[in-house]
Amino acid sequence: MSLVIDEDKCARCGVCEPECPNEAIFQTEDAYVIDPELCSECVRFGDPKCVAVCPSDGVHKAKESLLKTCMGLFG
Ligand code: SF4
Ligand code: SF4
């Protein structure tokens, strides 16, 4: 399981990128994204570092994001 960045909430500040111990966060042309193959959810640290530093509540567990997407589609 990986965390994901919510495009709607992400302020594109870039603070999370250098904090990731796995270099899983990178910037695309118009967004910040998390590579699910590299994200370990920071299990060895206890809490996800990207969530801790994000000023805009932009990072979520994948299933939460999926739920929000579904709610948007069907709500
Ligand atoms: S949870 Fe940890 S490993 Fe995953 S993207 Fe965030 S900082 Fe990187
Ligand atoms: S710290 Fe939060 S707001 Fe900043 S780029 Fe990362 S996800 Fe987006």
Number of domains: 1
Shape: globular
Order of helices and strands, N to C?
A: EHEEHEH
Number of helices: 3
Low-confidence stretches: none
**Fraction of residues in helix:** 25-40%
Main CATH class: Alpha Beta
Strand order of the largest sheet: 1-4
Distance between the termini: 25 Å
Strand content: 15-25%
Ligands bound, unique? iron/sulfur cluster
Which structural category do the helix and sheet elements fall into?
A: alpha+beta
Instruction: Kindly report the average pLDDT value.
Output: 86
Radius of gyration: 12 Å
Instruction: Report the CATH topology name.
Output: Alpha-Beta Plaits
Give a structural overview.
With 75 residues, this protein is α+β, with helices and mostly antiparallel strands. Strand 2 and strand 3 (32-34) form a beta hairpin. The chain has helices at residues 16-19, 49-53, 62-74; strands at residues 3-5, 25-27, 32-34, 59-61. The radius of gyration is 12 Å and the shape is globular. The strands form 2 sheets. Strands 1-4 form a two-stranded antiparallel ribbon. A two-stranded antiparallel ribbon has the order 2-3. The chain has one domain: 2-Layer Sandwich (Alpha-Beta Plaits). The chain contains 3 helices and 4 strands, in the order E-H-E-E-H-E-H. The N and C termini lie far apart (25 Å). Bound molecules: iron/sulfur cluster (2 copies).
